[in-house]
Every structure is written in structure tokens, then in C-alpha cells.
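re: ur question from yesterday

yeah so i grabbed the chain u mentioned. its 83 aa long if i counted rite. heres the sequnce exactly as i have it in my notes:
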Amino acid sequence: MAKIKLDLHDIFNRGSSIDAELNRVIREAVDKGITLVEIIPGKGSGQLKKHVLRFLEQKHIKALYHRIEKDDKNFGRVFVHFR
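ran it thru and got these C-alpha cells back, copy pasting raw so excuse formatting
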């Protein structure tokens, strides 16, 4: 199973656009037929995770993936499953 991992800690610390990075990783998954993207917003205040979930809920993004899975054991991790 092909998987991409996106750790948002580094991006957040660099001040780069999180949305641009999320867009890039979703596109890459679609283009390469990747079935799973693991996004790591980290634990922190939960703001970054909320941002990620809001991004994924947008209609045009939601149309690209199959489902979201929040990791029960690790609050700071979100899996995006593709068909």
C-alpha cells in the first residue's frame, strides 16, 4: 500500500502556507494513485488539527478522497484514505 506522510510541524515552524502543502499532498496522492496520506498536525493546542480538518471538509477537496480517519491512539495524527 502506497502512503505519503506529511508532518506539519516543520511547515508550521517555517511559516509556509499549510493550505498549499495540504493541497500539494492531496494532489500528489490523487496523481500517483496513493491510497493513504498520514497528516501529522501534532498535539499542541489542537488548532492545527482543526485547520487540517476544515481544509479536508471543503467540497472540492472532499470529492478527491474516500474518508478521514482520526487516530484514536494518537490525537496528533489524521489519516486520509483514497479509493
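noticed a couple things. The chain has a mean pLDDT of 91. also The CA atoms of residues 67 and 80 lie 6 Å apart.
anyway ttyl
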